User: Fold this.
Amino acid sequence: MDKNNKHINFFDDELRDSELLSNLKGSNTFVTPDNYFQDLEADIINKIDTKTIGEKGQLSKYILYAVAASITIIMIFVGLQYNKTQKQRAQIVENIDSKIDNVDNKDIQLSDNKKNDEQIIAIDSVKPNLIEPVQNNTDISIATEDNRVNEPSYKRKFAKDNSIKSQIIVEENDNQDEYNEVIADNNSNELMPNSISNVESSSSSQIVIRSLARIFNNTQQNIFLPHDTCVNKAFVYTIDTTGLGDKLEFVWDNNKGVSSRITESGSYSLQYWFNDSLIGVDSMKVVVIAKPQPIIKCENEICNHESLLLNAGMSSEEYTYKWSVSDLNRSEIYVSKLKPGDKLIELEVSSCADTIYTETLVHINDCKLMIPNVFTPNGDGINDYFYIKGLDYYPGSSLTILDRKGTVVYQSLDYKNNWKADNIPDGTYFYSLIINDKSKTEKGGIISILR
Amino acid sequence: MPQYTDQEIIDLCRSSQTRERGFRVLLSQYKERIYWHIRRILYDHEDANDVTQDVFVKVWKSLDSFRGDSKLFSWIYRIATNESINYLRKMQKKKNVPFDQVSQYLESKVQHESLSGDDIERKLHNALVKLPEKQRLVFNMKYFENLKYREIAQILDITEGSLKASYHYAVKKIEENLKQD
Assistant:
């Protein structure tokens, strides 16, 4: 019976592992480098991009024939089309302007409503058919118009090929410090220096990011998230679907909805569905990093031959440390060979979102000892004491004076520059000074007493 | 992110307009599983990284020729398995690898793995690399990756019967090996 059972188990799809092995199960402790899978994806995508180009290369022979034939035809057309294009361009620019004005009002209202929910609100507006395809190969840059002085400024630009069908405008709002212009095209991410960075967030300031894009044939991907985003606190990224009806739906990672609250570093993906079919995916990498708060910790006063230990008061390796006195990018450094006087120590700590400057003043004393070889304790007020210049910086230094026979004639364990050779005849003596520095340096020599 | 079905991914890849997007979805859903599958065959992270990249580049290039006769899942796994085995063979042929046998090469890799310090786990892997290739593949997929016999059969293109036998033998040999010391 046992045998039979075994036989059955053996061919059972859920064949049991032996006891020994089932104890081990689930223990997979191989390690991969941090963020490996993100990097892997990027590496592969890079590879296939070049591979695709490689494949096109094989076709180049045939393309060459086609091109040669086409050029002749194009030459004829170009001449005819040139005038027309110029007119179209002007019209498009005008068109965009008026449409952007319309968009403004809606979005500002919307962001006001949400003000209380989160400190930073990023809004992507998707506007179908807002921008017509640009038909020329030039950059267009439009400066802020005079009558809009109090309005946020706009920049827009079209990249150098015809594929551009969308753009993102970043608007400066309230007393927001910085913003980045964002440009996107339909096919590649390369034109997109997209990032939100240095988000200074107080309740009175907010960033509004709009994506002005249109959806082509309900199939093309048109929303671009800022791919490398660096912020110093959590924020909410919202896609504004005003005017799109309820046919467009968004899924952030696992959650349906237009908003994603981003509280920690990571990759966030967005899917958008139109009429229940998936029309696009995009993702963004966000680094949420606390604002660095450096305070230089060090001694206020040191001797010029000592090295100074400087500490940024924080030690995260995620930041970059830039010291005025060193090239080392570390939170703790030693500097030495400082010149006597006041030294300003400056430090800049940067994360990808913030750069914080701090400074401190350190007084560098000239602590070099000057030991005389003669003094005149005759009471004339000049050179009456065995005065070692700089000894004040080393309290606790001991001094011993010996005569020629080696007898101790004076000793102090904490010499205060106050020996005036009372009751000791003129002549030559030996001194031994143990300096109370880190290494207890001993100095010896000859001192002559002349009255 | 909701998981896409293989069929949805294939549909995305079919049209040249959405192919790249389809591939990205495929990549995000398969990259980790495929990496671990390869890592368990090759042990070395750098080796596995190279092969994983090659596999997906190959998948990308062959999307055209994928006709859907087999499932996307088993197709990708098959490419990954074949690439890994080929990699091992190349390693074997290379003269600068001073190992006569693949198992010795792999054993040296196991030694370098920072396994959780658990001796028994290291023993398991040492026993594993001594198995014949097919048994090791079957064992990995069944034991570590929890694949169904039906799926493994599709990937390796062998019958379920011989598969079960392979797994049975593999388990037996590993047990013996573990009990030895």
